[in-house]
Fold this protein.
Amino acid sequence: MSALNRASEEPKYDVFQAIADPTRRGVLRLLGERELPVNAISSHFPMTRTAVSKHLRILAEAGLVKERKVGRETRYRLDADPLREIKSWLAFYERFWENKLDALRRYVEADEGDNE
């Protein structure tokens, strides 16, 4: 396979780019509940159906949304597997949050001991 063919198979958008937009995060939240056609998705946002379709295309290119034809209608559903990449990335930073929470707990407990 040539380098040109491999490059064309790579997604245009990665998961991080796809979820960076609040509208796309909202679409994912909706699709996490159930499979929906673009008209139903569009009704939840103050934008045109065309704009929602563009967001769906970006989500699909990142692998977060799958399409299924039902008659003349295209329905969309969430594919959460690519979100594991984000979970892995965030796991590294959780230790910093945990350290801050532990320090806060120790501070509060020490302050309570001084007040007794």
Observations:
- The chain is about 65% helix and 10% strand.
